[in-house]
Design brief:
single chain, 253 residues, alpha/beta, Rossmann fold, 2 domains, six-stranded parallel sheet, 9 helices, 12 strands, binds NADP nicotinamide-adenine-dinucleotide phosphate
Length: 253
């Protein structure tokens, strides 16, 4: 059973470790967005496939696909669904749950709406939305003293009044509180990424009384098998392997 694991997340690395430990042949795929990615154990390939046609061609080398990309990696998930459907390759979505909402959080449908609301709710925003989304905040927040945090520097040039912090989670509550206090942050913008790595900023915001704006997740492709933990995904892969190994007579029993 050859598994293609679409990754770039902590759950994908966890799943790769579980599958390698069970001697499953797994190849993790990374987009190649960051210069020093955290690498999973096992085989790794890096870079896009070339849209749905490229992914369909690549699927000739695999029996199963697990899409464990980030909840906001909408394009890759849509391509995986289309390519696997066309090639009749079983596909599982491994997606960490969103955060349990706090009553004071404000949810928005997109980044432009988040930018406008941030301009209304506070004077000193803290943007934690990733570098690919930053440009969408410029029209509303260009003149504000924004603190923007991301893994690597963005390609676009930022306004003079903006402060850039490059770092990668997991983060600690005490550090998040210090950062927000040092920059007198009064509004935090985040995607509903879920997980524990970046949760402390939300705890810090609650303690400091900082307003929170949460960008809702894009809708997942309909009709997919979905699990929320690497353990469940590993069990699915092994169940698929067993199905394929059993002779037809045993399967029909
Ligand atoms: P995206 O917009 O959904 O994908 C755009 C294109 O990047 C895809 O069509 C594909 O190119 C390529 N790609 C994306 N993920 C890939 C993967 N795992 N392996 C090979 N190619 C991939 O993706 P994104 O939001 O930029 O995210 C890129 C990567 O960063 C993903 O692996 C994701 O798990 C990780 N990540 C994303 C976020 C986020 O907030 N979006 C946060 C943390 C980590 P082709 O069409 O050429 O195949």
């Amino acid at each position: 059973m050859r598994v293609l694991l679409l990754g770039g997340t902590s759950e994908a690395r966890e799943l790769a470790a579980l599958l390698v430990a069970k001697s499953v042949e797994v190849t993790s795929s990374l987009a190649g967005r960051v210069t020093r990615p955290r690498l999973p154990v096992g085989a790794v390939r890096i870079g896009g496939f070339g849209g749905v046609p490229g992914l369909r061609a690549a699927l000739a080398d695999y029996d199963l696909v697990v899409d464990a990309t980030h909840p906001f990696a909408e394009g890759m998930s849509a391509n995986a669904e289309a390519a696997c459907r066309a090639e009749r390759v079983p596909l599982l979505r491994l997606e960490r749950p969103g955060w349990e909402p706090m009553p004071q959080w404000r949810y928005v449908e997109g980044h432009e709406e988040a930018a406008r609301l941030a301009a209304d709710l506070g004077r000193r925003p803290f943007l934690t939305v990733g570098r690919q989304e930053l440009g969408r905040f410029l029209p509303s927040l260009r003149e504000r003293p924004v603190l923007a945090r991301m893994v690597e520097r963005p390609d676009l040039s930022l306004p003079h009044g903006w402060t850039l912090v490059t770092s990668r989670g997991p983060y600690l509550l005490a550090d998040e509180m210090r950062l927000m206090r040092d920059h007198a942050i009064d509004v935090l913008v985040t995607k509903d990424s879920g997980g524990s790595y970046t949760w402390p900023k939300l705890e810090a915001a609650a303690i400091l009384g900082v307003a929170v704006i949460v960008v809702r997740r894009p809708a997942a492709p309909a009709g997919l098998a979905v699990v929320h933990t690497a353990q469940d995904a590993s069990a699915w892969v092994r169940a698929q392997s067993r199905c394929r190994c059993l002779p037809n007579a045993e399967l029909s029993e």
